[in-house]
Amino acid sequence: MTIRVLLVDDEPLLRMAFTMVLDAQTDMEPVGEAGDGAEAVRLAHELRPDVVLMDVRMPGTDGIEATERIVAESPESKVLILTTFDLDEYAFAGLRAGASGFLLKNALPQELLAAIRCVAAGDAVVAPRITRLLLENFAHQLPSGADAHGKDDRLGRLTAREREVLTEVGRGLSNSEIAVLLHLAEATVKTHLNRILVKLELRDRVQAVVFAYETRLVRPA
Question: Phi first, then psi: what are they for 206, rounded to 5°?
Answer without folding.
Answer: -60, -45
